[in-house]
What we know:
The protein is mainly alpha-helical. It is 42% helix and 10% strand.
Amino acid sequence: MLTMSPQCNARLGNKHLLDFLRNCLLSSEIExxxxxxxxxxxxxxxxxxxxxxxxxxxxxxxxxxKFNDGVMExxxxxxxxxxxxxxxxxxxxxxxxxxxxxxxxxxxVILDFLINSSKNVDFLRGKGIVLSARSPEDIVGFxxxxxxxxxx
Length: 152
């Protein structure tokens, strides 16, 4: 379930409801980096074979994926019926608002790289990172088509 973080009440300058939801999903600890370029990374099972360990991250810290000392820490995400429309709207907001960075978009890109087959979904479900009653194939399709055509 997407729940609101404690930082929501502390953030000022919400332009509208969608901006408020986006701010609630973002961690205040994410560093801004305008020069961030997303090079393709291997999928989750390939990273696992290469020795990368996966760990569930903190709840309510959705886009804050960390990689340190061979451990990839990913906050859990609950994929429900409304999750796709929420993410598409948040990505559209980031693309249309010049004052927004692309944290949600980059999060979607990274998960798209990590999840390219039902085997990856099953692995991440087993780690408690992906939570959903949807089929693994639906989840693969969700991430593989989420941000298409949005990165500038």
